[in-house]
Amino acid sequence: MSAATETEAPMTASADPVAERVLVEDVERLGGQIKAAREAIGRVIFGQQDVIDGTLVTLLAGGHCLLIGVPGLAKTRLVQTLGVVLGLDAKRVQFTPDLMPADILGSEVLEQDESGRRGFRFIPGPVFCQLLMADEINRASPRTQSALLQSMQEHKVSVAGHYHDLPSPFHVLATQNPIEQEGTYPLPEAQLDRFLMQVDIGYPDRAAERAMLATTTTDRPVEPAPVLGDGDLLAAQRLVRRVPTGESVVEAILTLVRNGRPETTALPEVKAHVAWGPGPRASQALALAARARAILDGRLAPSVDDVIALARPVLIHRMAPTFTARADGVALGDIIDRLVATVG
């Protein structure tokens, strides 16, 4: 099913023709901005268009992204480029086993003023930014990982009993190395669920790697150029939530997510091979990501095709295989493909 066949009445459409016209104009303008941002990122990051699109969809939907890939695939460069192109304050933290929560959140220090009066002053940590790269997040201890959980969910941190609001917008792009698992601490399910999408990063093709060589090994490296300004991403995220969603898209999301739960599915392979499935946050993620993907493609409303395309990155980190599935070599990706077949 394509966007062109989405003719039903949208669930969030306005009855005011003027409001509808304004919404269409705003979406078209945002589509132009995102297209320009996409091209600006593509001039710096080679051969990773799917990764760029997945990250942009995540940011437009207002979520956090988990990037899975081996070292050397420009994950750090991607975050730096996104910060420049989207006009965001970006920072990077290398997660290690000895990293403490205060190294991320900040801490209070005791100071004495000129009159001799003592008091505590809060020194913000690197989490106080708009785009945080948590590099190799699974190398930190569970205690440090949990310190980031509050930031991701509530957009604020608690230090010494006092709350401190984070800048807005606030997004976490976390990376994991899929091949080096020694000395790692798997992310807990609660934290995995806070990532709107998981984006797998593969090697670039030959042509892209050739272009990268020709561009990055000269004395004139290509630098990213700003496209969006201060507050533009927040405005874009508000606009994404105003995009109408058809009833068939909502039904596809509900069917997909509920069929992924052993408790609510009729699919025998899910009952046998899935220990726990996606929760309601997965439905919310799919609804927002589908709208963002439509805008990224220059369309005014999402279709069932968007839900199908986003099923794997939205669901795969929100499901766990059973012992039987591991023993039989059944991959979660294959199960999600079966789920997609129920809505395709």
From TrEMBL:
Coiled coil spans: none
Presence of keyword Metal-binding: no
Gene Ontology MF terms: ATP binding; ATP hydrolysis activity
Hydrolase keyword on record: yes
Domain ChlI/MoxR AAA lid: 271-337
Keywords recorded for this protein, A-Z: ATP-binding, Hydrolase, Nucleotide-binding
ATPase AAA-3 domain location: 64-197
Enzyme nomenclature, EC number: 3.6.3.-
Membership in a protein family: Belongs to the MoxR family.
PANTHER family: MAGNESIUM-CHELATASE SUBUNIT CHLD, MOXR FAMILY PROTEIN
UniProt-recorded name of the protein: MoxR-like ATPase
Organism: Roseospira goensis
